[in-house]
Amino acid sequence: MKMRNAPKNHHTRRILPMACATALAVVFAVALPAHAFKVTPPPVPPNLKVENGSHAFLVGHAVGTQNYVCAPSATSKTGVAYVLFTPEATLFNDEGHQLITHFFSPNPDSHDPNTSAAVVADGAIRATWVHSRDGSSVWAKVHTDDHGVSATFTPDKTAVAWVLLDKVGVEDGLTGGNILSKTTQVQRLSTTGGNAPDHGCDSLADVGHTAFSNYTADYFFYTNQKGNADDGN
């Protein structure tokens, strides 16, 4: 009897360590992405570098349009020019999952009032990013240096500029989500497309006409808070 039971007991002793190892592997596979994910932005010109002590915690790959409207312009020879009224883009993570939506909207932060007294209650219209999972949001405006020069860089004239933006408002999601709430600065890099068309806004008769220009870009979100990177999944 002992001889017949021995192989079974031995087999059981082998299964238990294997089962434990498998369980641990699953735990680590689930736990690691949230803690081991590393965001590595590409090199940028000096004027697009973020504040000291900041680190990138999230990146989203945007696909969408830059939306323009033909409006009167005092600086244009024709008296009209295309003006950007909003981007419409979806940001995806490296696995192709929807991560963030991007557009313009009023900033609810009272410390960033609209310059127009007629609409000050609605807040300044700012670039906006809303996390698709937890509803957290960040509003930002283009960074300017001590001389008032905007932090932009145009390596490709066929594409919209690379830009550094400063946070001017954040908001947690309705259920307390705060992935984007820790954002302090945002970089728009590696852009393609998105420029206003060359035609379609040529005279006062074209005022009000809209144009939607396809573009792609990488958006890097920075924080000065301590902690690990988060891919937002």
Features:
alpha+beta, 15% helix, globular, disordered N terminus
Write a short abstract of this structure.
The chain has 233 residues and is α+β, with helices and mostly antiparallel strands.
Reconstruct the topology from this structure.
Blueprint: H1 2-36, E1 55-72, E2 80-92, E3 98-106, E4 125-131, E5 137-142, E6 152-153, E7 162-171, E8 185-193, E9 210-223
Antiparallel strand pairs: 1-2, 1-9, 2-3, 3-4, 4-5, 5-7, 6-7, 7-8, 8-9
Explain this structure to me?
It is a single chain. The chain is α+β, with helices and mostly antiparallel strands and 233 residues long. The chain has two domains: 1-36; 39-223. The protein is 15% helix and 38% strand. The protein has one helix and nine strands. An eight-stranded antiparallel beta barrel has the order 1-2-3-4-5-7-8-9. Strand 2 (80-92) and strand 3 (98-106) form a beta hairpin. The protein is globular, with a radius of gyration of 25 Å.
